[in-house]
Amino acid sequence: MSKSLNNIIATIYFLLIFLLIGNGIAAQQIISRDTITSFAVIYNGDTIEAKELATVFFYSRGHHYEAQRTAAWTRLRNAIYVTYPYAKRAGAVLNDINAKLNAVNNEEQRKRYIKSREAELRKEFTDPLTNLSIYQGKVLMKLINRETGNNCFNIIKEYKGGFTARFYQTVAFFFSSNLKQPYDPSGEDAETEKIVQEVKRMYGI
Q: How confident is the model over 144-199, as pLDDT tens digits?
C-alpha cells in the first residue's frame, strides 16, 4: 500500500472519529436542552407530575339597581361637599342673629337689625348660591335645617313674615322642592348624615 493511500485512509479515519465525537456532543447538548424541570408529587408510592393551573378570573355584570344606587349616592355626596360649608356658615350667622335678637324688644330695632344682617348674607352668598343646581339647593336646605334646628320656611317666616314665607314655599313647590322639609339623621337622612360626618373630618370641623 502506498504512502499516499495510507495518508488518505488515516485522514478519513480521523474525520470519522471527529464526526462521531461531534455528533455525540451535539446529541448531549440537544438532550440537555430538551430537559424540562417539572414539579411532582408522590401519591401512593407513585411519582406524579404536578402542574399549577393558570388563574382564571370570573366577572359578573352588575345589576342596574346597584348602578343607579351608586350614581345617586355619588350625586348626594358631591352635593354635600359643595353645600355644607355654606350651610355651616349660614347656620352660624342665623344662630348669632337669634342670640342678638333675644336682647332686642323694640320691633323697629329688630327689623333694622335683621335688614342689616340680610344685606350681609346677600353680599356673601348671592354669587355662590346662584350657581347651585336645583338638586344642590334642596340638599342645602336640608343642611341648613341640620345646622339651625329649623326648616327654611320657619326661618323665612320668623325674619320676613308669613306672607313672604308662603310665597317662597310656592316658588319652591314649582321646583319640586319644599321649604318645610325636615332633617332626620337617624331615618330618611341617615346617609346624608354619614356623608356630613365625612365632610367634617375632611375639613377638620
A: 888 888 777 777 777 777 766 675 666 566 556 777 788 889 999 999 999 999 98
Q: What b/e string do you get for 117-134 counting C-beta neighbours within 10 Å, with b at 16 or more?
A: beeeeeeeeeeebeebee
- Cell numbers placing 149: 334646628
**Overall size of the chain counted in residues:** 205
Q: CA 202, CA 205: separation in Å to the nearest integer?
A: 8
CA distance 174 to 177: 7
What is the rounded CA–CA span in Å between residue 166 and residue 161? 9
Using the Cα atoms of residue 11, residue 14, residue 16 and residue 19 in order, give the sign of their dihedral.
negative
Task: Name the grid cell of 24.
Answer: 455525540
Q: What is the pTM of this model?
A: 0.60
Q: What tens digit of pLDDT does each residue of 45-99 get?
A: 888 888 778 888 877 776 777 788 889 999 999 999 998 988 888 888 888 888 8
Q: How far is CA 92 from CA 104, 142, 144, 150, 153, in A?
A: 19, 15, 10, 13, 18
* Residue reference for cell 367634617: 200
Burial classification of residue 45, based on how many CB atoms lie within 10 Å of its CB (0-12 exposed, 13-18 middle, 19 or more buried) = exposed
